[in-house]
Design a protein that fits this description.
Helix content is about 55%, strand content about 5%. The protein contains eleven helices and two strands, in the order ααββααααααααα. The C terminus is likely disordered.
Amino acid sequence: MKTFKGLVLQHLRPLVCDCLDPLQFAYQADSCFTGERGEMVDTYKFLGVTLNNKLDWTDHTEALYRKGQIRLFFLRRLRSFNVCTQLLQMFYQSVVASVLFFAVVCWGGGICTGCANKLSKLVRKASSVVGMELDSVEAVTEKRMRGKLKAIMDNPSHPLYTELRQLRSTFSYRLTQPRASKRFGGSFVPSAIRLHNATAPSTSNPRRQRLVLIQPNLYYLS
């Protein structure tokens, strides 16, 4: 996706020598600064998110599932002391959900069906322990993606603000879907735009409506 590529280039150019291509440097094992050969690994944890050399989220969801099972054990132990549902829900949101849905806007739209079903199974187990229905993985992902997209569109200092502003439609509240490959189609920007367009009002822009009401003849002539 051109938007993502532009942001990567913008941050890599100051760190790379002039004789190297910034995108090619990102995949080189030799360090541009020390000249030493870096270690090649299959997975790498960056800011709490596990990345792998296949560019999918299987390793990350496996790590989340293991962490969720450990914390679900403590939730069951807490229920054994006859704790009320309100405190169980508070414990779930603070200890279990905070781990399961960390950075969900990054990986929520790109996980495979098997990984999504595994995390959903964990949420259903937690629901039975708490004694009430909890938000599913899909519901949390959609809610946080919409919230993050709205926060970006309301923040002019955000790096994606200008890019999203250029995708706005002149006649409605919808955003133009950027072209993306199958791999990047599940990333944040394409997924968030699909969710935004699914719930965007079908009416035209209010500025255009005021033009129609105030100067109808001009509108019909245009």
